[in-house]
Design goal:
By secondary structure, this protein is of the alpha+beta class. The protein is built from 15 helices and seven strands. It has a domain of about 40 residues. It comes from Streptomyces durocortorensis.
Length: about 325
């Protein structure tokens, strides 16, 4: 399942310029037809791009994200300066990035934060051997920060109380239907930038129906996009205030806000509460109790206060996940609901 009952699989101000290289050329306006902008950046430590950028991927056919041969990652998004496409690849101990579109400068300025420059892995002190071993084996794990709320909030709402495949299909169909082709040489990749707030708000009911999105989720998205600017402000807020801002919207609860802020804010303590599988996974890994509930999960994670999201990421990466005892939830059809 996805969303509020989703299995998660191994799942301030805008960024400081940590060890930042210059953006070239110097801040022209880049369009899809104009020259790309480039940047190189040296991470402060080991960096695994797959682990860091993986949470942005909403399924293997996500129209906003691609990984291609050779470990190159493509991301299409809507920035405060307009649509942009970012290509990222490791080149030895440096990261090479290229960006296209009106949002190119913004994306390159935010590259260090996106790749975890503002994250502090050393703040995590493992209290369980499993987590100590996993962290040693995965030194390149850093928590990303996009600085963008809506791009993570909308797909998280789509993931509420449905299967992962249903949510991914809805995101794919809606972005391709109502988004725009991504700037740059992306035609062969099929990359699209998600719709802006006004376009989301104008999607007619039958199009939500075609994407198998029920009225509860589509209504929540409609309420959110009407106050998109206010919600985007959560990207600069401390975690408690950011949670509170998102949860002012009816239909957005602790699960959805945590899933969003993990990505938009790089929130190391945004633990996912309300997931049907995660408590059992944490309980199995830390206490050999696959029947743990949210309360027990939070108790087990108490030693990691301030780093509970990182702890759950490490648990999922450890592979110590209990065997599934119930059949997978079958996709629904809103025609029959």
């Amino acid at each position: 399942m996805a969303g509020r009952f989703a299995p998660r699989t191994a799942r301030e101000p805008l960024p400081r310029q940590a060890a930042a290289g210059p953006v070239r050329p110097a801040r022209p306006s880049s369009t899809s037809d104009g020259p790309p902008l480039t940047r190189e950046w040296t991470p402060p430590g080991p960096l695994d791009l797959r682990l860091v950028l993986g949470p942005l991927r909403r399924g293997p056919a996500d129209p906003t994200f691609r990984m291609v041969a050779g470990g190159t990652f493509w991301r299409a998004t809507r920035t405060p300066e307009g649509p942009g496409t970012l290509r990222v690849a490791a080149r030895g101990d440096r990261i090479a990035a290229t960006a296209w579109g009106p949002g190119a400068n913004w994306l390159l300025d935010g590259l260090p934060a996106l790749l975890g420059a503002e994250d502090d892995p050393d703040a995590f002190v493992p209290r369980h051997r499993l987590l100590a071993v996993t962290r040693h084996r995965r030194p390149g794990l850093r928590l990303l920060r996009t600085g963008l709320v809506m791009e993570s909030l909308i797909p998280s709402i789509l993931e509420q109380k449905v299967t992962t495949d249903e949510a991914y299909r809805a995101w794919r169909l809606l972005v391709r239907r109502f988004g725009t082709p991504a700037p740059g040489p992306t035609t062969d990749l099929g990359l699209h930038v998600m719709p802006d707030a006004r376009t989301w708000a104008m999607i007619p009911s039958w199009e939500w129906h075609k994407a198998n999105v029920d009225a509860k989720r589509s209504s929540t998205i409609m309420r959110a996009v009407r106050v998109a600017r206010r919600l985007e402000e959560a990207a600069t807020m401390p975690l408690p205030e950011a949670h509170a801002r998102l949860q002012l919207i009816p239909g957005i609860g602790p699960w959805t806000s945590a899933e969003t802020l993990q990505r938009s804010n790089g929130a190391a303590d945004a633990v996912t509460v309300g997931d049907v599988h995660l408590p059992g996974i944490v309980g199995h890994a830390l206490a050999d109790n696959r029947d743990a509930d949210d309360e027990e999960m939070l108790t087990l994670l108490t030693p990691y206060e301030g780093q509970r999201h990182r702890a759950t990421r490490l648990i999922l990466l450890s592979g110590r996940v209990p065997a599934r005892r119930a059949p997978r939830m079958q996709p629904g059809n809103i025609v029959n609901l």
